Model the fold of this input.
Amino acid sequence: MVSFAGALSAQRGAGPAPQPPPPPGDAANGKALYQENKCADCHRVGDAGSRVGPDLSMVGQLRSPESLQLALEAPDDEVLPEHRAAKIVLKDGTTVNGRLLNQDAFSVQVLTDKEALKSYARANMREYTILDKGLMPSYKGKLTPQQIVDVVNYLATLKPAPVPGRKP
Amino acid sequence: MTSQKVRTVLVVLVTLLAGTVSAQVTYDRILHADREPQNWLTYGGNYSSQRFSPLNQIARDNVKGLQLKWVWRPKYLDKMETTPIVVDGVMYAVQNSEVQAFDAATGRSFWTFRYNVPPDSNAYLMVVKGVAVAQDRVFWATYDGRLIAIDAKTGRQIWNKKLFDYKIGNVITGLQFNVAPLVVKDKVILGPATNEYGTNCWIAAYDVKTGDELWKFNTVPEPGEKGNETWPGDSWKHGGNPIWVTGSYDPDTNLTYWGIGNPNPGWNGGPRNPLDNLYGDSVVALDVDTGKLKWHYQFTPNDEFDWDSVQVPVLAEIPWQGRSRKVMLWANRNGFYYALDRASGEFLMGKPFVKQNWALGIDNGRPVRAPGITPTPEGTLVYPGTQGGTNWYSPSYSPRTGLFYVSVWDNYSAISRQGDVPPWQEGRKYTGNTGRARGPVAPRAGAPYRREDEGYGAVRALDPKTGEKKWDFKMVDYTEAGILTTGSDLLFSGGREGHFFSLDAKTGELLWRVNLGGTVASGPISYSVDGKQYVAVCADGGLFVFGLPE
Done:
């Protein structure tokens, strides 16, 4: 549901500064909207959902409410390079879509839409396209402004569990 | 690309998301690892830890053509001891503060997971022996006492559990994780080491899903636990008994087997004399569901020579006195080769596989100590020396040749000196060793000057039924390399001289070698991608992958 944006690298290192609170909204309704709109077809929260889109398990810590709202309303405005997708057509006609992970002069590595880590030799490709737009639909007009705020409120709750004894 | 085309791709992408999710590494897959020889699913290759690959594309007639395919030079270039895991064309490897997922054919990275291990958590060496993979997760045990579950597809951290304090205040506890975990069913099994700090260790199982502890076995039994009576007074409180290498698992008995390190103080028993100090220098057989001890066998009771039993338990089925028998093969650091019944722990045989002078033999499963071979204030010459006849280096058993292959240090000795044992002090080593003193000098020299009678390293093939040596491949310097055997009767290993080589597993004949520029201190593995076989090994600060010409 959120675009292929949102730095997740902080998961692997020191945590970022706390985010400001979201505008008033209903996080529970936002969660229901997340489910109704099948956001988990692309995104993952905890152990649920697809890995092909950006993982949202800690998105509430990593991104401000403002950027979350932007990602819902105008997702093409901010797509981080690490969230680009790839379309590969092999010489035998097979088409592979997935999340671009790595590439060099000889090969391309993707997490396919079937969630397999795969490497493809450029020599075996007929077509190779890197996609940085249109990976997620805009929900402006599909959801009301308040519903979007509700979803933002839900996403803002997605943070790592507090460590006992550690100050927030 | 037009906007419309982009949308079309999106629709296709989203539609396909409903498709089949890539296969997970289930318990059943690991249990039957022999059915997928293209993969290397556990530290030892399978639950039997035979480090045998059925692959046979690389064979005697083409091994000379092996070419370097790719190299991983991690950020931290300390000595690498890691055994990679390979699942469906993806290799997972660890070094120091990073875990990487690679395309196993090209070495291109899919993802990197970093966890900044505190430098002062290094109570020993900055080495990790590997990760484990199960379900859709990679499990990494860090020096500083954390067990981390990582999403195998994305490199995202799923959970991160602190299992012990490597430091309390400013005092180092001496505990560290060094092993590659073993996953059996829904359990991640591992234990910590202590490098002579006298901190007691354990083996424990943690839930794959949550990291919650499911059972724990104290390697130094506490009061009320069987075996505590083998420690005089309060000496059990600082007994150590660390875990340094990965165990094995037998589904027939539902037992997991782990080798346990030496008791503390290590080089002078002092307060723990004269009793046996269980479960130091032992193998323990634990029920994998409960952690309850089924049996144990102690190789070196009351050890004062630092002869950890941190060898990988190798499980095999061999002919034994006219029938087939399920055994455990064990070449121990104390210089003896053992065969045990792995269901009961019954001692079947024990025989020296290197020069030793500390035992006259083994009587009814217990070593008969040679008179006078104990630590003394003036020093006692003991064979094998402190590093042992072998050590943590993975051996291999080939079901094709029926031979057991061991990396050995032979004609190797040390001087065992007895000093005072100062009281245990938190954050200090607890060895009972007082350093150099006047007395005999071990007959050894550095490798450039060493005679064979002063010590040498070798890959040694043993008949597991008798312990008889079948052949040797000798090196001047010692070896810390593990051993791999394959379905084409090749053997791969290396050593401190920096060579990585292939031998004929039947005869020991050298077939191919390359110098990798540093100590080979890991166990090689083999796997295949798209029908092409590869061999991988670590040397010094790099992981090297070889294959046949295209």
Observations:
- Residues 145-156 of chain A form the longest helix (12 residues).
- Residues 1-14 of chain A have pLDDT under 50 and may be disordered.
- DSSP finds four helices and seven strands in chain A.
